[in-house]
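so i finally got all the pieces together for this one. its two components total, 930 residues if u count the protein bits. some of the lines might not be protein, just check the labels. i wanna see the whole assembly predicted at once instead of chain by chain like last time, that was a mess tbh
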Amino acid sequence: MVAMAERPTMTEEQTLEQRHSIVIRMGGESGEGVKSTGELFAQVAARAGFKVLTFQTYPAEIKGGHSVYQVRLSSEDLYTEGAALDILLAFNQEGYDKSYEELHDDGLLLYDDGAVTDFHYEQGGKRALALPMTKIAKGELKFELGKNVVAVGMLAALFGMDVEPINRLLTEKFLRKGEDVVAKNKQAFQLGFRYIEESFPERANYYLKAGAVEEDSIIISGNQLLSMGCIAGGCTHLFGYPITPASDIMEFLAGELPKVGGAVVQAEDEIASMGMVLGASYTGKRAMTSTSGPGLSLMVEMLGLSGMAEIPAVIVDVQRTGPSTGMPTKQEQGDLNMAVYAGHGEFPRIVLAPTDVADCFWRAIDAFNFAERYQVPVILLSDTTLSVRTQSIHKPDLSKIKLIPRVLYDPTASANATLDQHTLSTPVAQHGNGTLPENDGEGDEVDMELAASRGFELYQRYAVTEDGVSPMSIPGQAGGQYTSSGLEHNEFSRPRYDVINHTRMTDKRHRKLIGAAQNAPEPFRAGDPAAELGIITWGSATGVAYEALLEAQKQGVKLDLIAPRMIWPIPTQQLDDFIASKRVIIIPEVNFSGQFANLLNTHYRKDFVRLNVYGGAPLKSSLLLAKIMEYVNH
Amino acid sequence: MDVLNNNTKSQVALLERTVDDYKSDTKPTWCPGCGDFGVLNAIYNALKAKGTDPKDIVAVSGIGCSSRLPFFVSSYGFHSVHGRAMPVSTGIRVANPDIQLIAFGGDGDGFAIGAGHFVHTARRNLNICYVIMDNNIYGLTKGQTSPTSDLGFVTKTTPKGSADAPLNPLMLALAMGATYVARGFSGKTKELADLILQGMEHPGFAVIDVFSPCPTFNKVNTFKYYRDEAIDLPEGYDKTDYIAALAAASKHDPYYLGVLYENRDKATFEDHVAATIPAERQTPEQVLNGLFKKFS
């Protein structure tokens, strides 16, 4: 670091090399509008025809601390927020201090004139431009809060954006606050725009070609689209407790679920949230909760009840950095173990993980379908990066939504047949290890006789079936009465403690996982299936892996990539061939111990190359690329 | 009770039900002399008097001796986990407000591990009739001190006597906003049945704390003890007087039995939830298309 006495200045004849994309970061005091500037700019850019992908990181506190909003623009599809910065917009000194080193050697520093005074880093080839954002807002605009929109106008001019669609956006965005507010914001935008046009002739160097404006384009965050996926998945009820970074799912659905006749209830804690979910689901509704790691920790007893009593439930876990309270606003894929293993005893559950923003929509629908189809808890593992990532994507095609209903009790058919097939004293021969226990004499003769006396028409809530799924009755349905319980029970849902019954029921419950794995959603696939070098990853690390793969391919490396969207049960039919056919497999993930690698190692007995980052930031594709290169000729 | 006959009976709505219609095939597993038998008996009678079809009732409980009760009733049942009867009941009522919901549990289930949920369920005033079988001890785990055990109560976990002051369930219920607060005694099943019937008919959160002695592990709070220590509310007692209710609830030596408080004017949680649902419902597709416009 070399302290610079003078303000850095623009040098002549500098051109920004033609890039596939531009990464711009805004940094400043949390609560001072960094986020609103970033969000507005992302929307503006999307309206102007750019593909947009954002990243943000902010302190857990409401006010104070450093906040960052990063926007990546391109005319082509984007998969990550990018690495080195092309433009840094510093709202204060810290904005400069914290990010200047990440600015490209030929990058551009923009800063609010007067807000950054100590230019202590060596300038090198980097350029700098003071922008009178606050000055214009306070002066000509006479509206200090308009500073953010002034800044957006400046950036839009810098990239040569088309003003018309942006003006329409500003009208739509501010109209409900009144015509005056619309006019003021348009003026702020114009002042910023004009300033750059008049005082920065080199701006043409930053022009980035926009793509065509697509009719079906939306700009949306992972949490927003995940919430919409829940609506699409038929969810009517959410019971939750506020927690970063999942709260906005609950807030979003609080405004939407009543429209379909449902409700959002804020419970007293996460234990209660899950209890309410199970209560609502027991009455036949598609119910969910949304939480993060600390909340899921509290829900574990109810996870077991859901598995044991076979009550569908959807739990969205937006992972953040743990353990304990950890770093609430930072990235980690650290809850995989908990999602797959949490709970005493053994019971089936399904764990899904969306790979990108668009995928949040479809996996949320899957979560409800799997929960209903198999009457199990489904954990949907999103993460901080995905939750706050705003991306321009194609609107999901609603005609592709398929809802799978719960198997309901039909007194005229189903349950009776199963009793004939599996008499109570003859366990089905599908035990976990093929061992049939000795009958300990505490069988179900009583219920058997009772059932026989009624011509086998007594409802069996837990009828033993081939796929493990028993038709469920719903309160209000005559003849379907039973008592749901976390106690081990027989077909008639009556408490039973005998060896044969527990073995059979454990088998029955776990058989659901066979069907679930077979119906796993398609994995994310890319690269060359014939390659000897492969990458397996999951969740939001998928985009990073894909970007690394594209770069490796450019360098002539043959590489294959798979990211399963079902984590548990392991979708073996997707992974068996992939794992068998590779010489080396790298598993990058954002956690310390390599949780997915461990899970796959336990099943496949294969040593994987692990790449783990666990500092609270997302994985960088450059790091993965370096790892790939290590193994190319290794 | 015959499940199949219920099916037929439900189609003949006006047919009067009998106590047997509410009994299940599962027989109670309680110790001989357990106070909970009297409570169960009162419940059967209250259900018969109310006459709701068993298919439209859900009996919810937590874990403990008394929480086994749903198994003995011919309605739908949900024997949940320890202390969580209230959240499960809340989910059921929010999702289906047509369900007649009766919840059961003990003093440990409701006031130790489940105390937080009790507080918030009372605050919300959900339409739930919650019957607590209070025996001042943990029975299922074979005799440990409970939140309603007296100070100095000697148990296996408190060999020198409990150091915790007892919790007063009725004071707690009143303070937290329960709109029907009553106390019964399993030695007086006829009166208890009436309290439970009123609780079921009450529009809001009804709390009925029932002295239900544990003859096996509690040799202090026995049937004889409560016969001597509990009396009916005085003549002319006004159950709509909140302050009088607090005074009556705080009284011991002797304790009062009966309806200490009732307020039928407070809106229920279900009312508030219903008020948020627009008259004209949308399909999920309509909602999504509206949102897509917002995010375009």
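Residues 171 and 249 of chain B are 6 Å apart (CA to CA).
The mean pLDDT of chain B is 94.
anyway lmk what u think
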